[in-house]
Recover the amino acids of this structure.
């Protein structure tokens, strides 16, 4: 996301491998909302479903934004994110 080259080091790859979590199941004590831009060139559209499957006992809502990109930073995207935050805040209280 810059004009400068992005340097990928062996340490970064090793760190990423240690942090891979989708091959296990997890439990959270709160609902999860995943927002996925369908025009995102960096994140596979199946990723939110893989995340959802990793949390079988946690309510996970997937929100697919058909014309959304990786940043989800347009006003309508930010509004959708705010709606999800408000919903989670309401669920928590």
């Amino acid at each position: 996301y810059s004009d400068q080259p992005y340097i990928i080091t062996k340490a970064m790859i090793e760190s990423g491998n240690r942090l891979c979590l989708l091959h296990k199941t997890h439990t959270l004590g709160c609902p999860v909302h995943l927002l996925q831009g369908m025009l995102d060139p960096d994140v596979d559209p199946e990723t939110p479903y893989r995340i959802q499957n990793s949390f079988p006992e946690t309510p996970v809502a997937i929100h697919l934004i058909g014309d959304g990109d990786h940043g989800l930073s347009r006003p309508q995207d930010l509004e959708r994110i705010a709606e999800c935050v408000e919903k989670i805040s309401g669920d928590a209280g």
